[in-house]
Design a protein that fits this description.
heterodimer, A: alpha+beta, Aldehyde Oxidoreductase, domain 3, seven-stranded mixed β-sheet, five-stranded mixed β-sheet, B: alpha+beta, five-stranded antiparallel β-sheet, binds flavin-adenine dinucleotide
Chain lengths: 759, 265
């Protein structure tokens, strides 16, 4: 055993570099002579472009080029792909929303790119952009997802009636309706999933270099997947195939938003190829608000059916899911997870989702911060809380009656997922104890004696991680003195390098100090995607298999060196040994003699994992102002197994704070008439801050995952799934006690809470 | 940001001379409002005259029942000043509650009141403490200095040199922060000067204002209940994404009561 094996707390190896400002982000690449790009964007949410006059801009000082959608069309650029096929319930395919690199004849959201200016400096480019005269004919616009789907609403796309781009049913409608028909109790809820902006610390950026000798372009960009970007941008948009290489250096946060291509990436490569010079672009914060794909934006009508004894029979929902102006890469798939997550950790008979996907004149929405799982769990956990109150059953007891039991595993849920592991009842019991659930009435009384209202909110959560698409690859190369690990994923701040070194150190029995991790180059790291909390599960498994392949590949050479038959050699702790003797040689010596050992494993298991847990929030509300403070917060998670407990807690904390952000603060608000984003800066878009959250009481109740050899389940998004229902359930605990109110929409701002208490 | 000229003034007279010659030149203090507006291309001064090199603008003095603070004194310096903390602890606390650490380390009192953001804190402190604003040309009472939304009594090219605050018997400032920007949704400054009391409100309206009815009630009896029943009409108050007018009106009463409580310790 090496001292930093799997399961140990190893401090992040990335930190000294990053904390001392020694990291290398895309914007740090500033070679002499690179052209600086500025993107002119639409100020209108919806307009016809009647003409663009770029003459004055072309003539402005320092300008190298001014490009518009016309040039893109002339160069036959493809559209940005949405890779998710969806079939409507009537069998027809979903609507299409071809998204050009630069708007051609129409703009469909504020921020839609209209022209690209490349100049000697950023300021010259921006100054010149102000000289571009775009002749817009403004059209009526629509921002609200529910309003957009009603007859008579402004039409975002001519061929898509009522803006409904897809209309489908998931699960069994008949079985669900039958269960509702015989239900003793039905509870209902109408809610929104507030639209969110990712706001990573490092904004999006693209820097393209061009090599005339090979006619190849290299796109440096802050991303979650160099392989996928290479394929989509190289093959589909620019149609240059392998003449594109994509690289990502350090990435300062993403949480899904940097997984998919955005128009500026192909735009910058295209400009660089036309100009045969390097071109760089970095989003500023205002641009980020107007162009980074956003999250959520659902209007939901949901119902829960229970029998006389409080047993859950079925859950159903109608979800209007906002897609924004264009279907982004994964967008239509994300709200489908509402269906798979709705049964949560409970033994439902049936679940049914009617999903209506709607385009609006807003920034496109895509996979972000839990990507569909928070949306599904929130619906069910809110319904359960309402049911508990209306039936007069304690919320923990109602959940206990309905948990999928250990003895039922593996269990196929009403949505068709097969849970392999998870002790939901035991986990909840542990959380109740950790939270001192029974001591709540005394704490509530103490708060009331100080004029404050106290509420407690419980939620269970489960999410679906791992899985098949896209495959992840890990290559391992060993030479005479070092091991290099090449994952297909890109670290966005999670600490992948640290954990990969821990894993490979254990697999190969080699010290971490002798292992390098090299990531983020589509030439060297061919498959993979950071996303869906799947790194530990998929990359971890691939690394284990690739390690074993490397060891096997060295057997022959080791046998030669040890003058023994290969069958008599065993590998242990970094050495090949002749069984039963002390004759041995090291992996490095064998690799040196063999001229290097290497293996590439492409992992595509298809096996899903189901991290799960319980969040219990305790809040105090000041009835005079509506201010909600989080007084206690308990989290118990089942991640199967901890690879590095410290990094794991970091993931839990980060996800939970972002979930609290959604519950209490964050909201991308658009003006209903103009579809202008009203919360387009940090002056108006509230982010959660350190002083908004208490110290979390975290613990684990792991049950190993049985569908992967590591036993891990994934953890990155967990907190963002658990926190919203826990916080809202806690606030509603107060509102129900005082006012009989059963729901408050997110974000539960101070004013909203104050109004609810004074209604 | 558009191109501009930059000049670091050595003396007040130097600065005034540049401003006198160029009507589009602007004074640069901490740059926390001005540079941000320039970056967004919302402001386009031809030149910036940096006051950072003029030492006399950075002094804090307490004498004759008044605290006098140089225009270029940073929020952090006021918050940390032992003299201010002793004479008017509410003022030090106000400065310590502005923005974040980075903003407090460069943002200045002169810049803040010259800017007169309707949600800024210092205007409430100035009006609540009956401050006198001195410029290179004259002295202006805080009662006439603040003219509503980003407007002040300053004339083009006029430079604030000091702000003098009366030392009250007791005072407190309570700020209800915007959760996004951390500026004031409503901020109430209450100061008890013995016979008279001043109550100044920021954030709630288009500019900082006083509430005569509360001042009268508190002059009669400086106690929380004196204001608890006084409500302010919602008409004319700001109504936006962050707080509608009736909520702001309600908060004024709540915060006033809390400010009196805090002033009483
Ligand atoms: C993130 C952030 C958060 C903030 N939060 C708060 C908050 O919570 N509360 C709050 O009150 N403020 C807040 N501010 C504003 C901050 O207090 C600034 O310091 C202040 O508004 C301007 O001061 P400055 O010294 O930076 O002035 P500058 O930005 O340099 O100048 C502002 C204006 O005043 C003029 N000016 C400056 N000095 C003088 C002078 N001596 N005479 C005449 N004119 C002058 C300038 O020409 C300019 O027009 C925040 C700012 C930021 C960036």
């Amino acid at each position: 055993m090496t001292k930093f094996a799997i399961g140990q707390t190893v401090h992040r190896l990335e930190d000294p570099t990053l904390l001392q400002g020694q990291g290398c982000y895309t914007d740090d690449l500033r070679p002499q002579g690179a052209g600086h790009a500025f993107v002119l964007r639409s100020p209108h949410a919806h307009a016809i472009i009647r003409g663009i006059d770029t003459r004055a801009a072309q003539a402005a000082p320092g300008v190298i080029a001014v490009l518009t959608g016309k040039d893109a069309k002339a160069d036959d650029l493809g559209y940005l792909p949405c890779i998710v096929p969806v079939k409507n319930h009537d069998g027809t395919p979903r609507g299409d929303t071809p998204r050009p690199v630069l708007a051609f004849d129409r703009v469909r959201h504020v921020g839609d790119p209209v022209a690209l200016v490349v100049a000697a400096t950023y300021h010259a480019a921006r100054d010149a952009a102000e000289l571009i005269d775009v002749d817009y004919e403004p059209l009526p616009a629509v921002a609200d997802v529910f309003a957009a789907a009603q007859p008579g609403a402004p039409q975002v796309w001519p061929g898509i009636s009522n803006n409904i781009v897809a209309d489908l049913h998931m699960g069994s409608k008949d079985a669900t309706d039958a269960a509702f028909a015989r239900a003793a109790h039905v509870v209902k809820i109408e809610l929104i999933q507030n639209r969110l902006v990712a706001n990573p610390m490092e904004p999006r950026a693209a820097f393209a270099e061009y090599d005339p000798a090979t006619d190849r372009s290299t796109l440096h960009t802050s991303s979650q997947s160099v392989a996928m970007l290479r394929a989509h941008i190289g093959d589909i948009v620019l149609k240059i195939g392998d003449k594109l290489r994509v690289r990502s250096g350090n990435v300062g946060g993403a949480f899904g938003m940097k997984a998919m291509q955005h128009p500026e990436q192909p735009m910058i490569v295209w400009a660089s190829r036309r100009l045969k010079r390097a071109v760089r672009w970095t989003s500023d914060r205002s641009e980020g608000f107007l162009t980074d794909v956003q999250g959520r934006d659902h209007k939901v009508f949901a119902e829960l059916a229970l029998d006389r004894g409080g047993r859950f029979l079925a859950v159903r929902a109608t979800v209007y899911a906002g897609m924004g102006a264009y279907l982004s890469q994964f967008a239509p798939m994300i709200p489908q997870s509402v269906h798979s997550m709705m049964p949560s950790v409970y033994a439902f008979e049936a679940a049914h989702l009617h999903l209506i996907e709607v385009t609006t004149n807003t920034v496109p929405v895509d996979a972000y911060r839990g990507a569909g799982r928070p949306e599904g769990i929130y619906v069910t956990e809110r319904l359960i809380d309402i049911a508990a109150r209306q039936l007069g059953i304690a919320p923990d007891e109602l959940r206990r009656r309905n948990f999928i039991k250990l003895s039922q595993l593996p269990y196929k849920t009403a949505a068709g997922l097969v849970y392999d592991s998870g002790d939901f009842e035991g986990l909840q019991a542990k959380a109740l104890k950790e939270a001192d659930w029974d001591g709540f009435p005394a704490r509530r009384a103490a708060s009331e004696s100080r004029g404050k209202l106290r509420g407690i909110g419980l939620t269970m959560y489960v999410e679906r991680c791992g899985g098949a698409a896209p495959p992840d690859s890990v290559a391992i190369k060993v030479n005479r003195d070092r091991v290099t690990v090449l994952p297909g994923t890109v670290d966005n701040g999670q600490g992948h390098t640290t954990v990969l070194k821990q894993m490979v150190s254990e697999y190969l029995g080699v010290d971490m100090e002798k292992i390098d991790v090299s990531q983020g180059d589509s030439d060297a790291n061919p498959f993979g995607l950071t996303g869906g909390s799947r790194f530990a599960v998929v990359t971890g498994t691939a690394a284990s298999i690739a390690s074993n392949e490397v060891i096997d590949k060295g057997m022959e050479q080791a046998a030669k060196m040890l003058e023994a038959a290969a069958a008599d050699i065993e590998y242990r702790d970094g050495d090949y040994k002749v069984k039963g003797t002390d004759r041995r040689t090291t992996l490095f010596d064998v690799a040196g003699a063999a001229g290097g050992l290497e293996a590439l494993h492409i992992k595509n298991t298809g096996a899903l994992t189901f991290p799960n847990g319980c969040h219990i929030a305790e809040v105090e509300i000041d009835p005079q102002t509506g201010v909600t403070t989080i007084e206690r917060y308990t989290i118990v998670d089942d991640f199967g197994r901890a690879l590095n407990p410290m990094l794991l807690l970091g993931q839990v904390h980060g996800g939970t704070v972002q979930g609290i952000g959604q519950a209490l603060f964050e909201h991308a608000v658009y003006d209903n008439d103009s579809a202008q984003l009203l919360t387009g800066s940090f002056m108006d878009y509230a982010m959660p801050r350190a002083d908004d959250v208490p110290s979390f009481n975290t613990s684990f109740h792991h049950t190993p995952c049985v569908t992967n050899p590591l036993g891990v389940k994934g953890a990155g998004e967990a907190g963002s799934v658990g926190a919203p229902p826990a916080i809202i359930n806690a606030i509603v605990d107060v509102l129900y006690a005082k006012k009989g109110i059963t729901h408050i929409d997110m974000p539960a701002t101070r004013e909203k809470v104050w109004r609810a208490l004074n209604s | 940001m558009y191109a501009f000229k930059y000049q670091r003034a050595r003396t007040l007279a130097d600065a005034a001379a540049v401003l006198g010659k160029d009507g589009d030149a602007k004074v640069l203090a901490g740059g926390q409002s001005l540079v941000a507006a320039m970056k967004l291309r919302l402001a386009q001064p031809s030149a910036l005259v940096d006051l950072g090199g003029i030492g006399e603008l950075q002094q804090i003095k307490v004498e004759g029942g008044a605290v006098t603070i140089g225009a270029m004194t940073t929020h952090a310096a006021v918050a940390a000043s032992a003299e201010v903390k002793k004479a008017i602890p509410a003022l030090a606390a106000l400065a310590g509650g502005i923005g974040d650490r980075q903003v407090r380390n460069v943002g200045t009192i002169g810049g803040s009141i010259a800017n007169n953001d309707p949600a800024a804190d210092y205007p409430a402190g100035c009006l609540g403490l009956g401050a006198t604003i001195a410029t290179n040309k004259r002295k202006i009472s805080s009662d006439t200095f603040f003219k509503g939304l980003y407007e002040t009594a300053l004339e083009t090219g006029e430079i604030i040199t000091t702000v003098s605050f009366q030392v009250p018997r007791r005072a407190a400032y309570i700020k209800f922060k915007n959760q996004a920007s951390r500026f004031a949704i409503v901020g109430v400054f209450v100061a008890d000067f013995g016979p008279s009391v001043r109550v100044a409100v920021t954030g709630a309206g288009p500019g900082v204002f006083r509430i005569a009815e509360m001042e009268k009630a508190l002059a009669a009896k400086f106690a929380p209940d004196a204001v608890a029943g006084i409500s302010v009409p919602a008409e004319g108050l700001n109504s936006d994404l962050h707080a509608q007018a009736d909520y702001r009106a309600h908060l004024i009463t709540v915060l006033s009561r809390r400010a009196v409580e805090a002033a009483l310790g």
